[in-house]
Write a structure and sequence with these properties.
Blueprint: H1 2-6, H2 22-31, E1 36-39, H3 46-57, E2 61-65, H4 72-76, E3 77-82, E4 85-90, H5 92-99, E5 102-106, H6 113-116, E6 128-131, E7 136-139, E8 145-150, H7 163-166, E9 170-173, H8 179-190, H9 194-208, H10 221-232, H11 237-246, H12 253-266
Parallel strand pairs: 1-8, 1-9, 2-5, 5-8
Antiparallel strand pairs: 3-4, 6-7
Amino acid sequence: MNDVINQYRIEKEPYYHTVADEVDLYEAAYGVRMPMMLKGPTGCGKTRFVEYMAWKLGKPLITVACNEDMTASDLVGRFLLDANGTRWQDGPLAIAARFGAICYLDEVVEARQDTTVVIHPLTDNRRVLPLEKKGELVHAHPDFQIVISYNPGYQSLMKDLKQSTKQRFGALDFNYPEHGIEVEIVSHETGVPSDISDKLVSIAERARNLKGHGLDEGISTRMLVYAGSLIAKGVDPRNACRVALIRPITDDPDMRDALDAAVTTFF
């Protein structure tokens, strides 16, 4: 059992800068094993927050990147053929429930709704996972918790969680940090001076103001870390911003020109 679950333990403290009371709220939620939902734009720190909380609580973390091709069997497990015949292989959700890990379903709405319903018995007072193909009912370990995340800005009526799923979770809202905190994060993660981080954050804030006015999404904190990392390696700041901030988020020539102009203003 230890060999199975220890590989998911986070040994080194992940860097996470507290923004409000999210750490205390999550700790309280974990104390009663409340399933949690993290909502916010891409690259704003949701995954890093879960990693930090798993480390802080001393619990293993099993992360699943959800996608539209993911089936229920990918989550709970399946029978496999090997040289000795047929054997059962637990999926990540079953491993987490069986051994007491935090199971993090990243961008859960990317999975089909007929797949996500398998988490329902684990998110109410039953705390069980039926392995129908195996004929087993897994009772969740006392330390087990399920966490999901998604970006509400991308959702449509065809790609959203059912109310029957949403109402099984507590929720924390995430957004990009306020200016000073984001400057600290970028400097810490990349090693660039705070004046450089300040300029990068200012560029991002201008881009975020264009969301819904030519941009589907603004520049994320993750992208700022990419740009800062390039600058720390000696790449010219303007080139670093074009590669890491502007070119990934838009192909529109006019929008690129506008964002390039913003970069030139600061660098």
